[in-house]
Amino acid sequence: MYRSAAKRLLLLQSRVCNGHPQISGVRTLTIPNSPRFSSTSASSSQTFSDQSPNFPHQSHAQNPNFSDSASSASSSQSSGFESEDAPHHESRTSKGSPPRAQYQEEQARVLSASLRHVPNLGWTEAAMIAGAREAGVSPSIIGSFPRKEAALVEFFMDECLQLLMDRIDSEKDLRNLIPSERISKLVRIRLEMQAPFISKWPQALSIQAQPQNITTSFKQRAMLVDEIWHAAGDEASDVDWYAKRAALGAIYSTTEVYMLTDKSPDFHDTWTFLDGRVRDAFDLKKTFQEDFHVTPQRVVEFLQAKYLAEAVGAGMGSSLQGFMRRVFQG
Amino acid sequence: MALRMCTKSLRRKLFPVFNSASLLHSHSTSFGFKEVREEEKSQMVGNVFSSVASNYDLMNDVMSAGLHRLWKDRLVSKLNPFPGMRHLDVAGGTGDVAFRILETINSVDHRALQDVLEDNLHEDTQIYVCDINPNMLNVGKKRAQERGLENHQSLVWVEGDAEALSFEDDSMDGYTIAFGIRNVTHIEKVLAEAHRVLKSGGRFLCLELSHVEVPVFKQLYDYYSFSVIPAIGELVAGDRESYQYLVESIRRFPSQDKFASMIADAGFQKVEYENLVGGVVAVHSGWKF
Ligand SMILES: C[S@@+](CC[C@H](N)C(=O)[O-])C[C@H]1O[C@@H](n2cnc3c(N)ncnc32)[C@H](O)[C@@H]1O
User: Mind listing the GO biological process terms from this record (chain B) (predicted)?
Assistant: First the structure.
């Protein structure tokens, strides 16, 4: 949640942020909201004033642009994080999100550089040290991420959501698809962003599943699923909103896990699997609700059980099942 | 209570100074509650440590009931040392903090980190121990010898003043000062120097005796510090006066919040502190960017 949690909250949920872009995890040890030491406050004007003119550009210059790797149906396994120019975030940043303190810009720059080392070094402190060095920042900065590797995974999740939103805005074709196809397409776009990291993704999942990280993992996935439903043209006021979120969550995570062991070219089998699950869900919903008058809740439970069974059938480890249960059942 | 000083000779050394200091109104600084001329304070502190250097560990253990070890461990775990790090430990004469950092970097976990990073980073690791007092540095070197570290390429002993460091700008990944900042004449200068020598992203950490706020504990602690400590001091070191100094200087030191704001004023960001044992000691932290 380091890159743009505050901004995302503003954009996505239209929730009012407290205007204090402190990172929640570190807050316990921070003097809470005290304007005296907060680098974001006006009192330390020297730090505050440098940040807006200089840093946005610097950080954007370092931002990975991995939308290419995403749109090219992951035909190459090379990390999309090598590219140096990323105009994507400019517009979002200027839409009135609260300015981040300089240290947060630096944290984002380091995490962004660290992602380029993940395919080799994994979601590890080593990748973060390498990233800090590359960004020209002392690796001591890693001490400012209380949950270390989790910060890296969460940053990645945030970046991916941001890119997904950009794709939703820019890709007009999506609107011509029927809802089930649109959902399939969006899940695929999002999962393709993980393709360059696929060999290290089980490690990311296990980090996300650790008790101290699960709350954030859950929130990030919920936001992702909400965003996809929203983009699919579904207004969230429905009574069965919870059920929809859970159903899509189950589809998303099952496909995510399926992808881990998929050796077919460009994850062809994964996308077939995904299409099947989405179609199923839409059909089932219809059948159950119209013909049997079953509550959406029941449909979801049914789907979850079914997918877990399928995941087991596909030979996935029990730890991953455990992960899915925990993340998607709260 | 981690202790800074204890010596029979302290009293002898202090008295002439107090006399001359009492005549002066300006440029005085706190040496306990007694006002002392600035240029004399650093000299005085130097003298004090010269004579206690070799008893230092014993006193630390007696006064803090061994807790200072845990506090230093906490300090180093916050620092999160890494292979290839350039670190400066100021007022670190006895090497206590430096040895811990080195051990952490050399620990199995960190070896693994190093393997993954593939460079020969351990050769780049440099831990500078800086102290104003050569006798304290000698104690540290002797202890390094006992640990088989006397020729360790990573350890560098430097005599120097925290207020005017001899290190280059932007040259350090980390800076620590444990039970040292309360001895200095100008806290602001020490902070400014710390900021100057750190690289962008570099970490400042300070472990210091601090102010207890937890109500009942505060009263017990006050009793302990004003009555028990000078008494132990008299008993163990035959020197009540210097313990009086210690206790008073703790009261003089800025509160945790005030000190945090001084750190922020020196240019550090994301300034935080953590109280240990209800504020008997506090670890202050900040980053330079
Ligand atoms: C209480 S000892 C702390 C030693 C060690 N850091 C520890 O925690 O065990 C204080 C040290 O600060 C050193 N010192 C005092 N004033 C100093 C200054 N201006 N610059 C550098 N060192 C100083 C003293 O020589 C002494 O070694």
Answer: methylation
Give a yes or no: residue A198 inside a domain.
yes
- To the nearest whole Å, the CA of B113 is away from the closest chain A CA by 6
| Statement: the pTM of the whole predicted model exceeds 0.90 | no
Which residues of B fall within a CB distance of 8 Å from A130?
117
Residues A241 and A320 in one domain: no
Indicate the number of domains in chain A: 2
ipTM over 0.95: no
Q: Report d(CA A327, CA A7) in Å as an integer.
A: 24
pLDDT in tens, B36-66: 556 666 665 555 555 555 566 666 666 666 6
Residue B116, pLDDT > 90, answer no
| B124 annotated ligand binder | no
Whether A182 is in a domain gets the answer yes
Look at residue A44 in the predicted model and tell me its pLDDT.
31
Summarize chain B as % helix, strand, coil (round to 5): 55, 20, 25
CA A86, A253, A69: angle at the middle one, nearest 5? 25
Determine, yes or no, domain membership for A77.
no
The CB-side HSE value for B287 (13 A sphere, CA atoms) comes to 25
CB A227 within 8 A of CB A12: yes
Q: Are residues A197 and A242 in the same domain?
A: yes
Task: For residue A121, give the nearest of A46, A197, A179, A61 by alpha carbon.
Answer: A197
Q: Which residue segment(s) compose the domain that A260 sits in? A: 149-291
Token pair 């994964």 in the structure block, residue: A270
* Ligand 1 atom closest to the CA of B185, numbered from 1: 19
Where residue A182 sits, what CATH number does that domain have? 1.10.357
**Which atom of ligand 1 is found nearest the CA of B163?**
19
Nearest to A140 among B174, B263, B272 (CB): B174
In a domain, A97, yes or no: no
Confidence of residue A238 (pLDDT cuts 50, 70, 90): low
Give chain B's domains with CATH numbers.
Answer: 2-287 (3.40.50.150)
Distance from CA of A80 to the nearest CA of B (A): 22
Q: Name the residue with the closest Cα to ligand 1, atom 12.
A: B91
